[in-house]
UniProtKB/TrEMBL annotation:
Domain of life of the native organism: Eukaryota
Matches recorded under CDD domains: GRX_PICOT_like
Keywords: 2Fe-2S, Iron, Iron-sulfur, Metal-binding, Redox-active center
PROSITE patterns referenced in this protein's UniProt entry, alphabetically: GLUTAREDOXIN_2
A GO cellular-component term linked to this record: mitochondrial matrix
Protein's organism: Symbiochloris irregularis
Regions that span the bilayer: none
Family of this protein: Belongs to the glutaredoxin family. CGFS subfamily.
Gene3D superfamilies named among the record's database cross-references: Glutaredoxin
Designated name of the protein: Glutaredoxin domain-containing protein
Record-annotated Glutaredoxin domain positions: 67-131
């Protein structure tokens, strides 16, 4: 039995050695293990934005729109209950707002959390200021604070619904 075990181990080592040497030859021809044997000319290229450009996009979003919502999904099809709640609150107050779907952009999803220092999505900004998420908006609604917030005559025009 020990002899059979050693034989299997030896065969495994030989197979791994053959794979490595065969792979070396492919790597010399420009293939990479990162893309399952796809030549480097045809591998996907990363277009991840730098953190600075994500911050710039966030600043632009909240400066250019009186009311801006970072959410999961879009206003017509929210992808989480909390995003849906915020959309319903905004609709109840007849607030026009712009939005970005953070599920479409991981850099934006992480960037907005850092920017606002708030760990969850959705995130609502009004007049360039972070207001909060679904729980905070529900509390503000119950306290009667949202009507005042949304009727601010000095704010910028609200943007139309849009995605990022």
């Amino acid at each position: 039995m020990l002899r059979a075990f050693r034989s299997v181990c030896q065969q495994q080592q030989q197979l791994q050695s053959a794979r490595r040497s065969g792979w070396s030859a492919l790597q010399e021809l420009g293939y990479s293990s990162a893309a399952d044997g796809v030549h480097s000319d045809f591998q996907p290229k990363s277009h991840i934005e730098s953190p600075k450009s994500v911050d710039e996009q966030i600043k632009k979003d909240i400066e250019d729109n009186r009311v801006f919502l970072y959410m999961k999904g879009n206003p017509a099809a929210p992808q989480c209950g909390f995003s849906n709640t915020v959309c319903k609150i905004l609709d109840a107050y007849d607030v026009k707002f712009a939005s970005a779907d953070v599920l479409q952009d991981e850099e934006l999803r992480e960037g907005i959390k850092k920017y606002s220092e708030w760990p969850t999505i959705p995130q609502l900004f009004v007049n360039g200021e972070f207001v909060g998420g679904a729980d905070i908006l529900m509390g503000m609604h119950k306290e009667g604070e949202l009507e005042k917030l949304f009727s601010d005559p000095h704010g910028k025009e609200a943007g139309a619904h849009h995605g990022s």
